[in-house]
């Protein structure tokens, strides 16, 4: 009896899983073996390891790493100080609120701020530095990415800090540890899970968001995501695009194993 | 004391950086100067332009229709999915279903978009309204499942046993006991699906083809052409709409459980 009910619920859901979860991954894998002329083989994989693609992948990694590191350095103190404020839930809500605003609009705002006559150059002008090209540089890409991802780093760290038992830090201080030692030996190790999920939430999108590179970085920065979009929608080389996608999936799986699956 | 001041300055700086670009965008939507610098004077011209742009209004309507339809359908599938997971007999099946469920949540949007594009081309679904709708349903289902599942797990099995003992049919148990109990989760799931759909750009961008467009795709193509203050005006309107949605969401959410981290969207 029980068994039959379960099957009825399972049918539409299983259908969804097969069609939209399993099939797309298999299709990506399948297409990655076809080159642009439709020949089956490992051509795309060989191409991926040529300097052009390999360098692109490495630089994408490097940027994602930088973005994650900068986010962490800014977010950890922010999260820590937030837990010390009076109305912390309200402040946290204010940190989360910008994430509800479409990413494109935030990127667009920076087109104005970093523009030749924009706010950033006006500030530079006050210090006697003439207008500089800020938009379409590596710097603008890093800045805007960090800006967009900071809340995603703060939230998990904040949650981890909230779970931390305050008597542990008190004990550490009573036993004579300096604030820095307390942080290094007690607080940080106990909140490492939050740091890990924050890094996971930043690193993967930093590898894959193509609209940021398109809008803010011009064609100066090419991430794995940009490469996939380029191959699928511009050059129509779906095979190569799929190959890059396969690597992105592998990297994603690797990161999730390293940082521990917590979702 | 000195330390406290330093801490406050740091926090205030972070908040300023987080909000300054958004306000910058909004303030210049009232600039009569026509650019995102040199504020010349106050005007509502750009808002007028937005409301007179019939193409844009059609796109807004498309976006809303897609969002409402996809989240309604995704909610039905998601509730069935949550029931299927909750009723799974073995732990292994349960975990496997949950893992498969979460694949689309953690996958980057480019991969979802690209793989759906291949899928539709292969099955022969024409790119446009249908493909966008199906995609939005597909990526919203796992979110609904995650919102409904905690409610189902919270529910005591004795409730169902009691209903059965009192002579309720299986259908009655579902519609009179289970669904009312999990309704806050269903509502929260619908709401999250709605915001995911409204916010999505990358997946839609891949599967939209020519001729059909949603708001985020339109904003992207306009922003790529450079600055136009009507985008600022539109952004301000969307911003206000988002705030209303968020307030609505937190209002609903006060009554239901929210799994950690799902309350945000990239």
Walk me through the structure.
The complex is a heterodimer of chains A (263) and B (266). Chain A has one domain: Orthogonal Bundle (MetI-like fold), CATH 1.10.3720. Chain A has 13 helices and no strands. Chain A has helices at residues 2-31, 43-48, 51-84, 88-96, 103-113, 119-126, 138-163, 166-174, 179-190, 192-208, 210-216, 224-234, 238-258. In chain A, α5 (103-113) runs parallel beside α11, α10 (192-208) runs antiparallel to α13 and α12 runs antiparallel to α13 (238-258). The longest helix of chain A is centred in the N-terminal third of the chain and has 34 residues, at 51-84. Chain A starts with a helix and ends in a 5-residue tail after the last helix. The mean pLDDT of chain A is 89. Chain B starts with a helix and ends in a 13-residue tail after the last helix. Chain B has 266 residues and is mainly alpha-helical. Chain B folds into two domains: 1-43; 53-256, MetI-like (MetI-like fold), CATH 1.10.3720.10. In chain B, α7 (157-165) runs antiparallel to α8 (170-199). Chain B is built from eleven helices and no strands. Classes of the chains: A mainly alpha (263), B mainly alpha (266). Chains A and B meet through α1, α3, α4, α5 and α7 of A and α1, α3, α4, α5 and α6 of B.
Task: Put the structure in a nutshell.
The complex is a heterodimer of chains A (263) and B (266). Chain A has 263 residues and is mainly alpha-helical. Helices cover 76% and strands 0% of the residues of chain A.
Question: What's the layout of helices and strands?
Answer:
The complex is a heterodimer of chains A (263) and B (266).
Chain A: H1 2-31, H2 43-48, H3 51-84, H4 88-96, H5 103-113, H6 119-126, H7 138-163, H8 166-174, H9 179-190, H10 192-208, H11 210-216, H12 224-234, H13 238-258
Chain B: H1 2-27, H2 45-52, H3 54-87, H4 91-106, H5 109-123, H6 129-154, H7 157-165, H8 170-199, H9 202-207, H10 215-224, H11 229-253
Helix pairs in contact in B: 2-11, 3-6, 3-8, 4-6, 6-8, 7-8, 8-11
């Amino acid at each position: 009896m029980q068994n039959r009910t379960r099957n009825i619920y399972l049918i539409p859901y299983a259908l969804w899983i097969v069609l939209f979860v399993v099939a797309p991954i298999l299709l990506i894998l399948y297409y990655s073996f076809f080159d642009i002329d439709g020949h089956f083989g490992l051509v795309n994989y060989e191409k991926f390891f040529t300097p052009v693609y390999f360098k692109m992948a490495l630089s994408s990694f490097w940027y994602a790493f930088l973005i994650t590191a900068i986010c962490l350095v800014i977010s950890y103190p922010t999260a820590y100080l937030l837990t010390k404020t009076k109305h912390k839930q309200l402040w946290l809500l204010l940190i989360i609120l910008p994430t509800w605003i479409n990413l494109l609009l935030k990127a667009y705002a920076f087109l104005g701020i970093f523009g030749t006559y924009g706010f950033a150059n006006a500030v530079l002008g006050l210090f006697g530095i003439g207008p500089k090209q800020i938009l379409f540089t590596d710097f603008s890409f890093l800045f805007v990415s960090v800006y967009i991802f900071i809340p995603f780093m703060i939230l998990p760290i904040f949650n981890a800090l909230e779970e931390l038992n305050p008597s542990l830090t008190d004990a550490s201080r009573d036993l004579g540890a300096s604030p820095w030692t307390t942080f290094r030996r007690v607080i940080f190790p106990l909140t490492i899970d939050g740091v890990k999920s924050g890094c996971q939430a930043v690193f993967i999108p930093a590898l894959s968001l193509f609209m940021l590179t398109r809008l803010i970085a011009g064609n100066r920065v090419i991430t794995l995501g940009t490469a996939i979009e380029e191959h699928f929608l511009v050059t129509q080389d779906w095979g190569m695009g799929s190959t890059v996608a396969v690597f992105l999936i592998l990297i994603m799986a690797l990161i999730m194993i390293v940082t521990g699956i917590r979702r | 004391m000195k330390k406290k001041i330093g801490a406050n300055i740091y926090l205030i700086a972070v908040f300023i950086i987080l909000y300054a670009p958004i306000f910058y965008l909004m303030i210049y939507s009232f600039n009569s100067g026509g650019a995102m610098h040199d504020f010349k004077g106050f005007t509502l011209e750009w808002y007028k332009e937005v409301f007179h742009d019939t193409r844009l209004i059609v796109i807004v309507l498309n976006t809303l229709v897609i969002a409402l339809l996809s989240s309604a359908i995704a909610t039905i599938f998601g509730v069935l999915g949550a029931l299927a997971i909750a009723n799974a007999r073995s732990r292994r099946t349960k975990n496997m279903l949950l893992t498969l469920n979460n694949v689309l949540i953690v996958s980057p949007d480019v991969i979802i978009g690209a793989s759906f594009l291949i899928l539709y081309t292969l099955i022969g679904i024409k790119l446009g309204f249908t493909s966008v709708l199906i995609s939005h349903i597909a990526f919203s289902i796992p979110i609904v499942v995650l919102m409904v599942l905690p409610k189902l797990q919270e529910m005591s099995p004795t409730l169902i046993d009691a209903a059965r003992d009192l002579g309720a049919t299986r259908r009655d148990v579902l519609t009179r006991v289970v669904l009312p109990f999990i309704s806050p989760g269903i509502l929260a799931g619908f709401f999250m699906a709605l915001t995911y759909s409204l916010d999505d750009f990358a997946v839609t961008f891949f599967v939209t083809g020519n001729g059909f467009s949603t708001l985020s795709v339109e904003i992207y193509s306009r922003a790529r052409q450079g600055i136009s203050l009507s985008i600022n005006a539109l952004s301000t309107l969307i911003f206000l709409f988002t705030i209303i949605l968020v307030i609505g969401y937190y209002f609903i959410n006060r009554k239901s459980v929210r799994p950690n981290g799902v309350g945000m969207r990239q």
